[in-house]
Design goal:
It holds the Pfam family p450. By secondary structure, the protein is of the alpha+beta class. Helices cover about 50% and strands about 5% of the residues. The protein has a 5-stranded mixed beta sheet, covered by helices on one side.
């Protein structure tokens, strides 16, 4: 337990131990409400956005639970598994298109990003044709360095777009989540279009940013270490592949700014007293490297039983889309390494551009080839260290 100084001069507690992180995220005295004094905002832009739009991620129970229950049925394990065939078809089509195009290619724009966008657009009922607009807005929203004005402008544009879309859904509903909410909640007067737009906002942004970045940086790790890629390729059944995905989630932990909380009352965590009104940066990525929870945690072990990792958070705010994300990742990683056994990085790892200025870690581009990589591709012995510690170059 230690104090850290943030961009605005505040000094919240940094919580890193696995058990301490689980304790805080499960404790109702640790509030996710960003309007409370002492809440440790990620940035000035992030603070401005949270003042403008309240999403269910920023709410405590019981208010948070009202929103979560509206969405729970759409994100069950059963419903997510029911989308596996569609996700597989999308991945197959994207790979076919990539292989028919120039070699080398950027795996981010060829597979990772369009896959995650297609999946969330299909679920929500957001037109895929509008992807350039909302991807641009989303990139600004998740940036930890964008100015307040840029973040607010992007947020307003996105909310206006989604509110208009919800109005259309109310008039001409289809078989998608936003249509259901527009008919059942807006039509019945239980929620406003602004409330539904806030739901759509968080699902659209988080639903594609996290999966796309996880696929990209996960493939960077696998391709830089051919032994790991071979292990995924030869996985003896879906259970082994699923286990490999859990270790990738633990090892990479792409949510890199921590879950933010503020104490509603005095609480003792790990033997340290946190006073009411003091902020907490709950570092799930660091907790996923706690040797008391994961022996030899700095080693990527594809056979490790890592399902108890905290990449999706913990407690009442456990990621509602985790089951769908797992299906996406299993299909993407498994299909890429099996269908293109010669897939390789086309540049040294230290030439990749890592996303330091985002709350979600990833790579800007991932140049790959399926013929012969150009000279200088990173050797497997150093690549894992470079990928995992790239953010220290910020």
């Amino acid at each position: 337990m230690s104090r850290v100084r943030l961009w605005d001069g505040s000094t919240p507690w940094l919580i890193t131990r696995y058990e301490d992180v689980r304790t805080v995220l499960a404790d109702r005295r640790a509030s996710a409400n960003p309007d409370l004094p002492g809440y440790p905002h990620v940035s000035a832009g992030g603070a401005a956005q949270q003042r403008r739009v309240r999403t269910f991620l920023d709410m405590d129970d019981p208010e948070h639970l009202v929103y979560r229950r509206l969405l729970a049925a759409d994100f069950t394990v059963r419903r997510s598994e029911g989308r596996r065939a569609h996700i597989q078809q999308v991945v197959d089509d994207l790979i076919t298109t990539m292989l028919a195009g120039p070699d080398p290619a950027d795996l981010v724009t060829a597979v990772a990003l369009p896959l995650s966008v297609r999946v969330i657009c299909s679920l929500l009922g957001v037109p895929y044709a509008d992807r350039e607009f909302f991807q641009r807005a989303s990139n600004t929203v998740v940036s930890s360095r964008a100015s307040e004005q840029r973040v607010l402008s992007a947020t307003e544009e996105l909310l206006d777009y989604l509110a208009t879309l919800i109005d259309r859904k109310a008039e001409e509903p289809r078989d998608d989540l936003l249509s259901r909410l527009a008919v059942d909640e807006l039509g019945a007067g239980r929620m406003t279009r602004e409330q539904l737009a806030s739901i759509a906002h968080v699902l659209l942004v988080a639903g594609h940013e996290t999966s796309a970045n996880m696929i990209a940086v996960g493939m960077a790790l696998l391709l830089a270490n051919p032994g790991h890629a071979d292990a995924v390729r030869t996985a003896d059944g879906p259970a082994t592949l699923a286990n490999a995905v859990e270790e990738l989630l633990r090892f990479l932990s792409i949510v890199q700014s921590g879950r933010r909380r503020v104490a509603l009352a005095d609480m003792e965590i790990g033997g340290t007293l946190i006073r009411a009104g003091e902020g907490m940066v709950v570092a799930t990525d660091v907790a996923n490297r706690d040797e008391t929870a994961f022996p030899d945690p700095a080693t990527f072990d594809i056979g490790r039983r890592a399902r108890h990792h905290l990449a999706f958070g913990h407690g009442t705010h456990l990621c509602i889309g985790q089951a769908l994300a797992r299906v996406e990742l299993q299909v993407a990683f498994g299909t890429l390494v099996r269908r293109i056994p010669t897939l390789a990085l086309d540049c040294p790892v230290d030439e990749l551009t890592f996303k330091h200025a985002s709350v979600v870690y990833g790579v800007g581009e991932l140049p790959v080839t399926w013929h012969r990589p150009r000279n200088g591709a990173a050797p497997a012995s150093t690549a894992t260290k470079e990928i995992i510690h790239a953010r220290t170059g910020d």
